Amino acid sequence: MKPEAASSLLPSIDGARLWASLMDLAQIGATPKGGVCRIALTDGDRAGRDQFVAWCKAAGLAVRIDEVGNIFARRDGTDPAARAVATGSHIDTQPTGGKFDGNFGVLAGLEVMRTLNDQGIRTRAPLEVVVWTNEEGSRFTPVMMGSGAFAGVFAPDFIRSQKDVGGATVGDELARIQYRGEQACGDVPGGMYAGYFEAHIEQGPVLEDAQLPIGIVSGALGQQWYDVTVTGMDAHAGPTPMPLRHDAMLASARMIDEVNRIALAEAPHGRGTVGYVNVKPNSRNVIPGAVSFSVDFRNAAQDGLDRMDAAMRASFPAIAAGCKCDVEIKQVVKFEPCAFDAACVSSVRQAAQELGLAHMDVVSGAGHDAVYVAQVAPAGMIFVPCKNGISHNEIEDALPEHITAGGNVLLRAMLAMAGVESRG
Amino acid sequence: MKPEAASSLLPSIDGARLWASLMDLAQIGATPKGGVCRIALTDGDRAGRDQFVAWCKAAGLAVRIDEVGNIFARRDGTDPAARAVATGSHIDTQPTGGKFDGNFGVLAGLEVMRTLNDQGIRTRAPLEVVVWTNEEGSRFTPVMMGSGAFAGVFAPDFIRSQKDVGGATVGDELARIQYRGEQACGDVPGGMYAGYFEAHIEQGPVLEDAQLPIGIVSGALGQQWYDVTVTGMDAHAGPTPMPLRHDAMLASARMIDEVNRIALAEAPHGRGTVGYVNVKPNSRNVIPGAVSFSVDFRNAAQDGLDRMDAAMRASFPAIAAGCKCDVEIKQVVKFEPCAFDAACVSSVRQAAQELGLAHMDVVSGAGHDAVYVAQVAPAGMIFVPCKNGISHNEIEDALPEHITAGGNVLLRAMLAMAGVESRG
Distance (Å, rounded) from C-alpha B196 to C-alpha B385? Predict the structure, then answer.
């Protein structure tokens, strides 16, 4: 059977139902400006989890909870020996978050299950939809806590001992909202996933700019973050001639421009951002004596990150010296670059092609649960555009046709890996 | 009589006495770190004024107060028709100010009077020492309030209606500390001053850098201050490729470097400073969507300030456009450049030469009371070095030999203008 013929046998998801579920879930923690506030392990998170679990049970899925609160909803396959094919994301949000970040991936997975139920399709391998605990990290650090624990990056005891600013621990809050489960982190009935696919809004402008509905995510950029401190000497703006200044702001301005040059030299995947700047004493007529700022470097490969690091360390001291200042550079965060599984990436691409959906390969600039899952299982991601590339914002938005397209790509990629055994 | 012979007849001030008075006055409002907090029209300012007035009375001077609290202490001359030669400065300080800023000029003037008393010298013209109200402007705006009112720049009613953050007015506070006088602003018995000389610490690093004890101040830089607002678009640092950014911080960094280039093109008197920067949202992994910053341009002549203004207005929009941002420039402060009276400047230079004191011509980068007085009377200034050029700081410091040198230059310049009639 040719692929065209095979694909014509496969169903489509119910885009209207997926959209309605997104809107329903967004009512839990809805904000006046149209966003969602459903911070990890709060009562709002519990209500969202309860809704998801109720939907899963209504769809006949078997729900398990692990020891850090990750939720797994399984639809059995026909082959008891087959390892499951999974999908998922998160439903916790930023304090002023949107309706789609995370929620789209979770509910697209649920919609896949519902569609298979409607069509009476049985798969060879079991399927699972996962809700990962605390992806956002806005209340408890580290970010991507649940998927990181699942992948063995963080010990469950470490995770449960993490505190919010009020001193409440993850363990206490899991117990309080009744989502501390029995399953050990990383345990999967029948063995680790054969594959994991995560659908997500892009959270950036690339797909919208290219006017394409689907991004085939080949991996995620590595990240290295720094604190930079430039020290000069405060002095009055009036009586201090230019040649006698130790101007920490001028030195910092040149470094900020240099961060941009360093990133441009690593096109297309190099990124360099100075998002935070603190000036002392920050008075109009005083030459700044001290400026601290952040540097966020990202690149698709570690050697690229190494080049960016080296370029910064080579240039900043010279820039500082040119302004009679000193500079200190301290690395504060590191995430390795991630390349998704070639077969998973191909599955996603083939699904988009079969559906006739225009697409491009993209690299995720942000971290996602799939990046941690990729450390223990073959993984891939599907991006859909979001309006103006805006996310982590109450005005986050996406088009129904893109949500539907992403759901259909997810369905096909999962079925291609799990195998279709029979249709009702 | 040759100048050398004439000068040898003139006395020297008592440097130790001047230093002791500086240290005594610094006890009023002394801070634990060795500085002074004597903010305008507070109880501390009253105590400082009372001490000055007591010293003046002990020196036989006649004290008058004007309607905005300026204090005038006169030593009569022999010629009833001669207009007075004046000196002075201020004794209010910044909240964490030093012992010398302002106080040096006032007490050097008092020391001139004491020296003439000791030597039994009578001058042809009367001499006056003036304490100007609220030069610093840290409690009440505008700065240089007393001298500005004296020069007719501000109406006395306007000055008296100015409020501090607690709502107290200058008028109320003058009455409360009993320094609201009868003399009309700008009135001087016998007519406006024939000349005004103000001794002051440099508040900058030029004299120290040149290792010279005396600065002949030829004028004061004009100032134009601006608020600049750069608007881009907030976006996540990760998912937003470099070419799709609207990075308000990158644009601002390039503008800050441009401010420096504009000032360097106007060497030696052009100055350009960005002292205040505010970044939104100021988060490490968010490309800044809005940055506002201050620009402080100074130059010795208005055409230079005009060129700086034009260069900024020509370059900033192009820099903004290069980062897909918009920019708004708003001028918020303007002080015209000031050239001191040629004869007064010569008098100061000649005094330094006669004393064999190494000196250089300098332009004041900051505003001083003398700049306002120069609008109504011939004026000049004498600078002495301060340690590391630091002022408006509790660690402000100066060397006794420089304080003495400045006092002697002041004495000679005043006597040259007032005329020595007789010696006891």
Answer: 21
If you write DSSP's letter for every residue of A50-117 in order, what string do you get? Answer: HHHHHHHHHTTPEEEEBTT--EEEEE--S-TTSPPEEEEE-----TTB-SSTTHHHHHHHHHHHHHHH
Closest chain A C-alpha to B74 CA, distance in angstroms: 32
All residues at 6 or more sequence positions from B178 whose CB lies less than 8 Å from its CB, including other chains:
B46
As a whole number of angstroms, the distance between CA B84 and CA B82 comes to 6
Q: Do B271 and A242 touch (CB under 8 A)?
A: yes
The answer on A328 and A312 residing in a single domain is yes
* pLDDT tens for each residue of A237-247: 999 999 999 99
CB contact at 8 A, A199 and A384: yes
Chain A, residues 147-206, CB within 8 A of chain B, namely: 202-206
pLDDT tens profile A253-304: 999 999 999 999 999 999 999 999 999 999 888 999 999 999 999 999 999 9
Query: What is this model's ipTM?
Result: 0.90
Interface test with A, best of B136, B240, B360 (most A CBs within 10 A): B240
Q: Are residues B27 and B169 in the same domain?
A: yes
- What is the number of structural domains in chain A? 2
Are residue B281 and residue B378 in the same domain, yes or no? no
C-beta atoms of B203 and A257 within 8 A: no
- Nearest residue to A362 (alpha-carbon basis) of A222, A263, A215, A264: A215
Note whether A291 and A342 are same-domain residues.
no
Question: Between residues 218 and 247 of chain A, which touch chain B (CB distance below 8 Å)?
Answer: 221, 223, 225, 234-242, 244, 247
Burial class (CB in 10 A: 0-12, 13-18, 19+), B119: middle
- B242 vs A263, A281, A286: nearest CB: A263
CA B233 remoteness from chain centre:
41
Same domain for A401 and A300, yes or no, is: no
Indicate which CATH number applies to the domain containing B68. 3.40.630.10
Do A212 and A385 contact (CB within 8 A), yes or no? yes
**CATH, residue B244:** 3.30.70.360
Q: Name residue B71's amino acid.
A: I
C-alpha A55/C-alpha A53 separation (Å) is: 5
Instruction: Check pLDDT > 80 for residue A3.
Output: no
Q: Do B252 and A253 touch (CB under 8 A)?
A: yes
Confidence at residue A138, expressed as pLDDT on a 0 to 100 scale: 85
Task: Looking at the structure, tell me whether residues B315 and B400 fall in a common domain.
Answer: no
Do B264 and B197 contact (CB within 8 A), yes or no? no
8 Å CB contact of B271 and A241: yes
CB contact under 8 A, A221 and B209: no
Choose among B254, B264, B271: nearest Cβ to A257.
B254
Q: Which of B278, B311, B335 is the last residue of a domain?
A: B335
With b meaning 16 or more CB within 10 Å and e meaning fewer, what string describes B404-421? bbbbbbbbbbbbbbbebe
Q: Tokens 């139902």 map to which residue?
A: A17
A-proximal residues of B, 278-307, CB under 8 Å = 279, 281-288, 294, 296, 298
d(C-alpha A249, C-alpha A234), whole Å? 10
Task: Find out whether A294 and A240 touch, Cβ atoms under 8 Å.
Answer: no
Residues B244 and B286 reside in one and the same domain: yes
- pTM value? 0.89
List pLDDT tens digits, range A335-360. 999 999 999 999 999 999 999 999 99
Across the interface, whether the CB atoms of A256 and B249 are under 8 A apart is answered: yes
Specify whether B292 is located in the same domain as B235. Answer: yes
Considering CB atoms only, which of B244, B273, B288 is closest to A209? B244
- Domain boundary (A335, A352, A377) is at A335
Q: What is the residue range of A291's domain?
A: 222-335
Best to test chain B binding among A277, A294, A392 (most B CBs inside 10 Å):
A277
Which chain B residues have a beta carbon less than 8 Å from that of A101? none
